[in-house]
């Protein structure tokens, strides 16, 4: 087949896609009625430093009496599956000036799919964009038109646009078109009163248009109106909703050959561009986490602007055919692929530059001897790169000095902590050095004159901090009373040993004053995640500087393994849940809240428990009148797309709920329907205190269910439900199954982390061994002191010492086997004795 001259390049998943129209081989006597759309997938070979063809595909198009050409190609999200696919828009010109446009999708198997087509009585020339759907958007006669695969109907937007500078996704708005249009002058002002500069500013304005909601967005959150007349292209780098406000970070290029960085509508930096007539800008994030801006010019030149302390040109090239951004080397970060124009008809991708202005730097097909301008350009790029590297080196040296100083500080703190730990174990009072003496910033409140009259018997471990509780609260949820005690960060007790008791304050002679309840320990941050920190020493509260304790893996390396059960750092809430209806029989009841815990200390390189302690937290009053008035009820109300429940309300709901976690994996489609199901059908809103979890407001049994949806990647996520009972769980899963794709795999996960489950299993096994040991000792003593039916008088169960059996896994198995044999033998002996006595009774004899 004969390939056309025009090639269109597109990067997709680290590969280069080359689209090209071709004619099949001509057969005599046959009319030329077809055209082929060819695609070649090229991947970078790191061994040969070249791009090689990986696969190819073909799409035949009927093209009799037609002239067909490729308009543009881009990547867009398929709304049916949520997967991003390459899209190609083609034009076929018919007679009578009627133009037919065709959009096709390319799948991973190199199979083309015709998405939709449409006809127009004019030719598309201005601001053609492809976006989610897939959809096509264009501008004609200062009007905005678009068509999507869902409707296949051309629609017009009620806006007047003189240019479109960007099309993309904005948080909570969907697809948004940014452009400039004629400004609406204030009606209260006379047009003659405006000066020439005022007319220049107010003659054009910048605004956004949400395609799905047909909503107008003010341009001031993107940039001031004064820039609307000079901006030619925009790229939105980051957009998010913070405190109910849209925050935008973008970069724009202007007709005055400038690149300007805007943040929240205000200019933050500007850079002069080396060439004239910039036409587009895109970004790349390199391996060194640098943000690069790639600017293309109408002359075929490009330049790269680096954003550090200021915007500066880092590199530039001339005579560029195309520039692509993707992870071509498979290193996990993006690189720039610069395709240079070729003087002769050589192989595709034979002349290119692949770089990230750092570690990755490959070039091919450049003759440095005969191509003097290219060599001069490379030399200039080398100087710019050296300048950028010098700046990076200076910043690196400063970081190294700061790290060295921080390491010295940590070393001194660790040494002092070791001394304090030794004093703690030996029950000596540790005197903290002053900050001036050690040259350190104090991590706690220094005691200038510590008392020396403390006796050795007064150990630090046996003390309870005076201020150990932040708050005591109570809530009524359904038929349950929830009482919570929020502990302070300085109350260093093992969470596994902390519990609450509710004791009635009245004198009831016929019933027990102790109320039966179940306990839960909850420690939350705003993302509903717990932070467990291991430590062996009780320290005063931090004062000026805090070490970074957010890495669990680092902490496991720094602290001994025997201390992993002690959890510190951060507020912890201990919750007691009891049945409400028995308490309402007394009409009015006063309960004392007691907190129980165990103090721990270390002796002889092992963890030993100290005495139990009981602390009075306070009293709670409960009356039928207060409950009827809703004084202690939870209040989960909607307020501007948020649930306004307090932290105590959230904890109360979680305490009475049962937690279930499900892993959802989809092989063929993304899991975008799950979020739509939560916000739509389930009528969920995020908590104002904890945005990661959402509260179900749907009327019926499912009201009050709490969801947490976490996406690991677009095809896998974990859905956690906090529901009242299994009936609500089944109702939620039944509703979810209707929106999930058929190929989804849903798996129930065990609650708790891997380390917690491992620790629970170890404790269960230890408890089992202790029970078996005690049972064996009792059996052994009975065998020694008495005789049993069917056994010899001197026969014992085993002559092997018990301690030696339990020292190894094989010994434990042997011990279990012998104990099982003894139990079976005991059952047989009991049966034999019973039958013998029965026979004697029937015979009338004495046995």
TrEMBL record:
One of its GO terms (cellular component) is Fanconi anaemia nuclear complex. Signal peptide: none annotated. It comes from the Eukaryota. GO terms for biological process: interstrand cross-link repair; negative regulation of double-strand break repair via homologous recombination; positive regulation of double-strand break repair via homologous recombination; replication-born double-strand break repair via sister chromatid exchange. InterPro entries: FANCB. This is FA complementation group B. It comes from Accipiter nisus (Eurasian sparrowhawk).
């Amino acid at each position: 087949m004969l390939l056309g001259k025009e090639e269109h390049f597109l990067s997709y998943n680290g590969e280069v896609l080359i689209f090209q129209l071709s004619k099949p081989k001509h057969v005599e006597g046959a009319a030329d009625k077809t055209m082929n759309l060819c695609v070649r997938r090229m991947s970078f070979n790191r061994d040969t430093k070249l791009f090689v063809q990986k696969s190819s595909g073909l799409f035949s198009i009927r093209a009799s009496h037609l002239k067909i050409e490729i308009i543009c190609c881009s990547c867009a999200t398929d709304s049916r599956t949520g997967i991003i696919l390459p899209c190609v828009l083609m034009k076929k010109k018919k007679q009578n000036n009627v133009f037919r446009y065709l959009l096709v999708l390319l799948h991973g198997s190199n199979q083309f799919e015709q998405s939709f087509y449409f006809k127009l009585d004019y030719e598309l020339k201005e601001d053609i964009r492809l976006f989610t759907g897939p959809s096509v958007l264009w501008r004609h006669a200062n009007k905005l038109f678009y068509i999507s695969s869902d409707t296949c109907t051309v629609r017009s937007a009620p806006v007047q646009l003189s240019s479109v500078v960007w099309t993309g996704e904005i948080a909570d708005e969907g697809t948004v078109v940014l452009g400039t249009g004629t400004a609406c002058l204030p009606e209260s002002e006379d047009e003659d009163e405006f000066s020439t500069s005022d007319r220049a500013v107010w003659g054009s304005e910048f605004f956004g248009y949400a395609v799905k909601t047909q909503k107008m967005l003010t341009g001031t959150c993107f940039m001031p109106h004064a820039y609307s007349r000079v901006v030619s292209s925009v790229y939105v780098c980051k957009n998010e909703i913070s405190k109910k406000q849209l925050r935008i970070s973008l970069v724009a290029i202007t007709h005055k050959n400038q690149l300007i960085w805007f943040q929240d509508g205000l200019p933050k930096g500007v850079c002069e561009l080396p060439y004239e007539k910039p036409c587009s800008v895109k970004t790349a994030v390199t391996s060194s986490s640098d943000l690069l801006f790639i600017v293309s010019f109408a002359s075929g030149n490009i330049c790269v602007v680096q954003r550090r302390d200021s915007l500066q040109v880092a590199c530039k090239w001339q005579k560029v055919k195309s520039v692509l951004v993707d992870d071509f080397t498979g290193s996990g970060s993006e690189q720039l692929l610069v395709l240079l124009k070729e003087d002769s008809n050589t192989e595709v991708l034979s002349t290119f530059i692949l770089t990230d202005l750092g570690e990755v730097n490959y070039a091919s097909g450049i003759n440095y001897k005969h191509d003097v301008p290219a060599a001069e350009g490379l030399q200039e790029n080398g100087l710019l790169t050296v300048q950028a590297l010098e700046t990076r080196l200076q910043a690196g040296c400063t970081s190294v000095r700061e790290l060295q100083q921080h390491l010295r500080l940590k070393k001194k703190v660790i040494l002092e902590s070791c001394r304090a730990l030794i004093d703690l174990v030996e029950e000596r009072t540790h005197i903290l050095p002053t900050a001036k003496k050690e040259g350190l910033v104090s991590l706690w409140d220094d005691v200038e004159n510590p008392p020396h009259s403390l006796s050795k018997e007064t150990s630090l471990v046996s003390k309870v901090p005076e201020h150990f509780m932040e708050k005591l609260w109570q809530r009524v949820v359904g038929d349950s009373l929830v009482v919570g005690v929020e502990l302070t960060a300085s109350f260093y007790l093992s969470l596994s040993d902390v519990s609450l008791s509710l004791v009635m304050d009245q004198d009831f002679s016929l019933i027990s004053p102790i109320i039966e309840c179940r306990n839960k320990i909850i420690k939350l941050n705003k993302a509903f995640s717990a932070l467990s920190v291991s430590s062996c020493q009780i320290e005063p509260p931090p004062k000026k500087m805090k070490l970074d304790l957010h890495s669990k893996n680092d902490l496991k390396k720094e602290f001994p393994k025997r201390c992993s059960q002690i959890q510190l750092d951060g507020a912890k809430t201990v919750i007691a849940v009891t049945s409400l209806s028995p308490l309402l029989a007394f009409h009015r009841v006063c309960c004392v809240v007691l907190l129980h815990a165990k103090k721990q200390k270390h002796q002889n390189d092992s963890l030993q428990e100290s005495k139990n302690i009981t602390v009075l937290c306070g009293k709670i009053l409960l009356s039928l009148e207060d409950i009827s008035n809703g004084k202690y009820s939870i209040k989960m109300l909607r307020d501007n797309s948020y649930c306004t429940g307090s932290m105590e309300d959230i904890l109360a709901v979680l305490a009475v709920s049962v937690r279930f976690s499900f892993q959802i994996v989809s092989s063929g489609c993304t899991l975008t329907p799950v979020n739509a199901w939560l916000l739509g059908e389930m009528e969920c809103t995020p908590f104002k205190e904890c945005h990661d979890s959402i509260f179900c407001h749907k009327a019926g049994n499912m009201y009050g269910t709490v969801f947490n949806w976490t996406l690991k990647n677009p095809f896998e996520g974990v859905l956690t439900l906090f529901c009242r009972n299994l009936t609500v769980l089944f109702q939620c899963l039944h509703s979810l199954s209707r929106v999930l794709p058929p190929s989804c795999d849903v798996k129930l996960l065990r609650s708790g982390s891997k380390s917690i489950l491992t620790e629970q299993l170890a404790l269960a096994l230890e408890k089992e061994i202790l029970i078996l040991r005690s049972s064996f000792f009792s059996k052994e003593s009975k065998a020694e002191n008495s005789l049993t039916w069917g056994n010899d008088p001197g026969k014992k169960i085993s002559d092997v010492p018990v301690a030696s059996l339990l020292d190894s896994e094989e010994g434990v198995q042997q011990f279990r086997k012998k104990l099982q044999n003894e139990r079976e033998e005991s059952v047989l002996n009991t049966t034999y004795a019973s039958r013998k006595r029965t026979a004697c009774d029937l015979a009338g004899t004495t046995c």
